[in-house]
């Protein structure tokens, strides 16, 4: 049985506070809208806590156990590395050079462009991402994962038309079927679909340090044994790369877990594989007429479009796009794209209970209202320039 | 101060209307926190729901409270001046009475906004729900407020509420906007945002009402909590 690990690497370009009272001021838009100090601070912190030690560990595990996995780096993350921490990019390059790590494409700006009515922007952002991966790492990804694993039949169709061989999605709405098989998206004829085994993925990414969880403490041997009990062709374990050292701090023992996992996995009939190496034919068709994602308990688009405030930001942004493209102003286009990163709209979520904890963890603003006011102020300021 | 301190030290139990006030007693009077119980104030939500009033043409920004330094009405007027630089169709209503009235009227003249500010004077219990019903946003920039019943009433009325971070009620409600009482720029930013952004206005209205219902800020509950404190002593 194949074991396909995929990790997402992303940092948003964080926003500055922009008051309506500052609307009359002029200045460089990038400096006005984006908080460079904070971007730098957070990137350097996460680099020390997560990216650098995890990459070091992964290279060691590749050398020792020949492990394989896939990564996708958002374009905005790559840009921040180029600006503030080139050593981080070097270490991803070193990983790529082992030949055991496969890059996956996504939207350059980690955006919701796939949900726009006009899909051209979505396609342009995917192409921009493919371009930077080729330029920096000399890889041409054959697999695609959309922002936050946002997926539908339509999105799969676009990925197929762009020539991707594989697409990744959340393993839900399966009924009696298992995510541990390759599927074919409805309406597609070539592209393969890998579905995230969310139980086993979330055991690590969310529950690893949850004392109240019956699986606690999660050890490498325990987890490997759970994996070995699965039936099917391929187990897809997808999560944020920041799980290692950032979401789950070093003190939780997450690095020790990762360090020992390959040896434990090797005890069973499990074989590491990257998406490109998953050669099995689809076991069946997977139909996703509505959008799914890996976010929140709902696993749909409600983490970003769950309330009126989020919807109004999204709609305003979409409308702005048409105006900006008419103007043919590259600088404004780029600013607009940087503003599309999902994190800005995610902070405006007003969901209750369990998910709120996750939102709060990621949120940098005091409340969804504060986040809305600031994001909408920036959108309106940009609109005023057109 | 001495009387307060003596009272606090000798009391078997102390009831405060917020954790903020409890912390102040511990901090300033070295009170034993184990004997301090927080019982939040309440409102009668029924008084403020379903009140129908014809909306004026201008948008209404409301301050309601005593006109004293403690409640920060001068910050409200300073924020009003800034809002008016961006929004013209707005009227600021200062409701209530107090020793600062003359000073505040002078301030509106000094700021050149006298034609945009309306002082209501004393507001009767009967008129208060009507006042909330015509308002578009409620602002309470208290410098120090143990609790603050008016923001709860405004929330029950379904108007967006902006309160200072130094207002006790901020501990128990989430669906309102918070500002530093001195930060009149931010206060203006938030007032304009509520006036301009429909989605914010709508979400706050809906969620405020829901929160007031869910959390059951009734005097009955407050009385029960108080009885518990008394029983604990027997």
Brief characterization of the structure:
Chain A is of the alpha/beta class. Chain A has helices spanning 29-33, 36-65, 75-84, 86-97, 120-137, 153-161, 198-205, 220-228, 254-265, 302-305, 308-327, 330-338, 342-346, 353-362, 368-384; strands at residues 2-9, 69-73, 101-103, 143-145, 166-170, 183-185, 192-196, 234-240, 271-272, 284-286. In chain A, 46% of the residues lie in helices and 11% in strands.
Question: What features would you describe in this structure?
Answer:
The complex is a heterodimer of chains A (386) and B (234). The model of chain A has no long low-confidence stretch (mean pLDDT 94). Helices cover 46% and strands 11% of the residues of chain A. In chain A, helix 2 runs parallel beside helix 9. Chain A is built from 15 helices and ten strands. Chain A is globular, with a radius of gyration of 20 Å. Chain B has two domains: 2-41 and 218-233, no CATH class; 45-215, Rossmann fold (3-Layer(aba) Sandwich), CATH 3.40.50.2000. Chain B is globular. Chain A binds chain B through residues 19-21, 23, 307-309, 311-313, 350, 366-367, 369-370, 372-373, 376-377, 380, and chain B through 82, 85-86, 174-175, 177-178, 185-186, 188-190, 192-193, 196-200, 202-204, 207.
């Amino acid at each position: 049985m194949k074991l396909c690990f995929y990790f997402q690497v992303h940092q948003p370009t964080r926003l500055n506070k922009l008051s309506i009272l500052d609307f009359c001021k002029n200045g460089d838009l990038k400096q006005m809208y984006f908080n460079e100090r904070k971007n730098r601070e957070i990137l350097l912190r996460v680099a020390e806590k997560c990216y650098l030690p995890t990459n070091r560990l992964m290279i060691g595990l590749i050398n020792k156990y020949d492990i394989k996995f896939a990564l996708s780096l958002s374009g905005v993350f790559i840009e921040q590395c180029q600006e503030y921490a080139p050593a981080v990019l070097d270490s991803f390059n070193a990983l790529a050079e082992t030949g055991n790590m496969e890059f996956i494409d996504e939207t350059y700006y980690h955006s919701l462009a796939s949900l726009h009515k006009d899909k051209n922007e979505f396609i342009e952002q995917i192409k921009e991402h493919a371009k930077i991966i080729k330029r920096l790492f000399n890889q041409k990804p054959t697999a695609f994962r959309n922002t936050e694993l946002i997926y539908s039949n339509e999105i799969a169709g676009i990925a197929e038309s762009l020539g991707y061989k594989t697409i990744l999605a959340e393993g839900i709405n399966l009924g009696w079927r298992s995510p541990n098989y390759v599927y074919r998206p409805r309406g597609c004829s070539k592209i393969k679909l890998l579905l995230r085994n969310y139980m086993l993925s979330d055991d690590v990414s969310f529950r690893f340090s949850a004392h109240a969880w019956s699986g606690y403490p999660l050890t490498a041997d325990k987890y490997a044994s759970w994996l070995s009990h699965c039936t099917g062709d391929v187990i897809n374990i997808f999560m944020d790369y920041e799980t290692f050292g950032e979401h789950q701090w070093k003190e939780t023992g997450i690095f020790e877990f990762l360090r020992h996992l390959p040896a434990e996995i090797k005890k069973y009939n499990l074989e590491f594989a990257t998406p490109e190496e998953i050669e099995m034919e689809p076991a069946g068709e997977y139909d996703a007429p509505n959008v799914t994602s890996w976010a929140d308990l709902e696993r749909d688009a409600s983490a970003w479009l769950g309330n009126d405030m989020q919807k109004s930001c999204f709609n305003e942004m979409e409308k702005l796009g048409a105006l900006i493209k008419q103007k043919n102003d590259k600088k404004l286009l780029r600013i607009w794209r940087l503003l599309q990163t999902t994190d800005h709209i995610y902070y405006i979520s007003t969901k209750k209970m369990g998910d709120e904890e996750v939102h709060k963890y990621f949120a940098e603003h005091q409340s969804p209202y504060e986040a809305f006011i600031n994001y909408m102020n920036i959108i309106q300021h940009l609109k005023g320039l057109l | 101060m001495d009387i307060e301190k003596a009272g606090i030290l000798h009391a078997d139990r102390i009831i405060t209307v917020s954790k903020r006030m409890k912390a102040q007693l511990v901090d300033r009077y070295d009170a034993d926190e184990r004997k301090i119980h927080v019982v939040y104030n309440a409102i009668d939500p029924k008084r403020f729901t379903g009140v129908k009033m014809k909306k004026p043409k201008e948008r209404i920004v409301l301050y309601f409270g005593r006109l004293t330094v403690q409640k920060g009405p001068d910050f409200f007027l300073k924020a009003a001046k800034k809002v008016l630089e961006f929004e013209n169709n707005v009227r600021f209503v200062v409701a209530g009475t107090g020793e600062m009235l003359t000073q505040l009227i002078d301030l509106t003249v000094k700021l050149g906004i006298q034609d945009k500010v309306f002082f209501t004077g004393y507001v009767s219990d009967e008129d208060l729900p009507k006042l909330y019903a015509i308002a578009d946003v409620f602002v309470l920039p208290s410098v120090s407020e143990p609790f603050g019943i008016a923001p709860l009433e405004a929330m029950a009325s379904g108007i967006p509420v902006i309160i200072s971070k130094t207002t006790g009620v901020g501990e128990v409600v989430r669906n309102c906007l918070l500002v530093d009482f001195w930060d009149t720029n931010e206060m203006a930013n938030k007032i304009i945002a509520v006036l301009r952004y429909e989605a914010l206005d709508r979400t706050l209205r809906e969620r405020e009402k829901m929160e007031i219902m869910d959390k059951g800020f009734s005097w009955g509950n407050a009385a029960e909590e108080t009885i518990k404190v008394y029983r604990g002593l027997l």
